[in-house]
Each structure stands twice: as structure tokens, then as C-alpha cells.
Amino acid sequence: MDFGFGPEDEELRGRARSWLREHLVGTYAHARGLGGPGSEHEGVEARRAWERELGRGGWIGQGWEAPDGAYGQRRLSLTGQVVWAEEYAALRAPGRVGHIGENLLAPTLVAHGSQRQRDRYLPGIARGEELWCQGYSEPGAGSDLAGIRTAAVRDPADGRHRITGQKIWTSLARDADWCFVLARTDPGSRRHRGLTFLLVPMDQPGRIEVRPIRQLTGTSEFNEVFFDGAVAAEAVGGEGDGWTVAMGLLALERGVSTLVQQIGFAAELERVLAAHAASGADDPVLRERLVRQWAELRTMRWNALRTLGGSGDQGAPSVAKLLWGGWHRRLGELAVAVRGAEATAGPADWGRESPYENGLDEEQRLFLFSRADTIYGGSDEIQRNIIAERVLGLPRETR
Prior knowledge:
Layout: H1 7-23, H2 27-30, H3 44-56, H4 78-90, H5 99-112, H6 115-126, E1 132-135, E2 151-154, E3 161-167, E4 178-184, E5 195-201, E6 208-212, E7 223-231, E8 234-236, H7 242-250, H8 256-279, H9 284-311, H10 316-339, H11 362-369, H12 380-391
Parallel strand pairs: 1-4
Antiparallel strand pairs: 2-3, 3-7, 4-5, 5-8, 6-7
Helix pairs in contact: 1-4, 4-8, 5-6, 5-7, 8-9, 8-10, 9-10, 10-11, 10-12
């Protein structure tokens, strides 16, 4: 497929830009640039309201494999989705709080759920009214998802599953209305067998507890979630089919969203380049690192477009994660290298305010938060194993 933008895409670009400019006013204008990885604590209420604004405009669920307007959404082509994503990022619209439901759960329900489940859950996501979080990782079972121990037992009284266990690194859990949970429903099973994909309402006082995890940046976008007999509404794909459903969902984590992410990366790189120019430094090694960083970002964009255009392979999501995780971590290192010794001091030392609890500025936050980029979302080691075993056909790692 030759991935390119046609006349219809450019017409959509104009409409998308006009809609965003018309609606990014008032409270929403003040929320521009707020939210996203490392900053999920910013402007949560305004961003929740913005999610509903997007829903009223029909901009949620553009890529769902469902008829146009079936759930209140407008269906866009792949290039159209990229156009919308680029315009959204270019105008620094608020960071999405509904992306987990829209981009992970909804396509999973389209692929593995029943029609009744799609009719129940997709409209709330499309309207921006119901937010979701992901209950996958556990202590001791992060990248190795098959090692989860959270258990779910079917209650003979009502046929529903009761969940007991702990999940960790759960983004947006404090604000979510629902959580999709991967739990072990066969107590004698091992690894990927005996797992079930459950839909769980979060409003269960005494049965679900959310504890924020304070990070190096002073913020707490990740959480621990404890289930103590929490009641699941239902299962997707049937009991024991959780691994198939979970793997189908993980394959959706990359895609158009990768291009949006890269626009944010480009803005961060521009700030680092501007800081370097303002410093007047003439270090050839540092200049070479900056040029390489710029070139690698362009390469990532071409790779993402190639993958979206149908030229990718089974390992494409893992390649994408390896590329951007390492790139962003190196950018954080560059941000403090450009600042030099000044990077060891905080804004409070210069009489400036900081949006972060421990007095960091943007470059310091970027450095600290990006240390985790090669770990979360599947560590580099796991991504390399996927490429080696599933794509290259190399022998499995000895366990």
C-alpha cells in the first residue's frame, strides 16, 4: 500500500482544524497541553469534560470496525485517522483520558465480544462518558503477563465472578469507571491457560481499593489496585479464553497513536534544540547527538507510516516499541546534557514555580520519567524475545 494523503484527507484536515479551533475555548483552551504520559494528574476534570465534547462531535471511535454512526461515532479511513491525530496534536489539544477505552477495549469488543456487549459498552465510550483502565500487570507478572495470580471464582448464587488479587501500574485507575481485568479462573492452571478477560465496574467501595504510586517526578499517574471479592459484570470471549482476548488487545497498543506520540516527541526535541542554541555551546559531540536524535525521529515516522500502510509484519509493534522507548530515553538524557550543571538545580532555586511536587522543570521531568520508557508497555527484553521467537523463528529462551 502506498500510504499518502489524498484530496479527501486534506478536506478533512481543514474541517478537523476548524472544529478544534472552534471548541478549544474557555476551560478547554486552558487545558491545552495538559495530560499525557507523566502528566496525567493535570486538569483531569477539564479533560473529562473535553472527552464528552469530543463525543458530541463524533470524534471518538473513528477506527472501530463498526458501521459509521452505529455508536455515535464517525468512521474515518486510516489516512483520515492520521490526519485527525496530527491536527489534534499540532493544536496541543488536552491529553485524552478515554484513550484506553477507545483504542484498546472497544476494538477488542468488536473482535471478541458479543453484539450485546458492543451495544452495551461502546456507546458510553463513544460519548466520552465512561472511562476505562487496564488491569493486566501484577507484582511479579509485569512483562511476563502469563504469570498473573489474581483469581476469579464464579459465585453459584448469581453466576458472576468474584475477583481477589492485586494489579499494579494501572494508569488512570483513580478516574476510571470500569476496568478490564485478566484473571485466573481455573485455580489449577498454569501460564496462559485458565485465564479469563473480565469487565469490572470500579465503583465497589470495600471491594476495590486504588492506591497511587508516587514516582520520581513527584506525580502519581500509576496506581496499585486491590480486589477483595470485587464483582465482575461479565466475561469477554468466554471463560478460559482470556489469553487470546488479551493478546488481541495488546496488538492494538501501537498504530495511529504512535504517530500522535511522535508529534509530542517532536515538540520536546524542539525545546531541547532551542535550549542548545540559546546556550551558545559548541560541543561537536553534543551536536552530533542532537542531529542523530532528529534523524531517528524521522526514521520512526517513516517506519510507522510503512507499518500502517500494510507493509509491516508480526513483529512491527515490538519494533515500534523498541524504537520509541530507547529514543525517548536518550532525549531525556540529552535534555539534561544540554543544560549542563544547571540541570542539577530546580526552578525554586531560580525563583520560578514548578508544576511538579518536587520542584522539577520540564527538562528534568522528561529525564526522570523517560527512564521508564524501555520498561513499561513491555520491556525491551520482552520485545526482543517476541521478534526473535515469533518473527525470526529462533529457539525459545531457556526458562
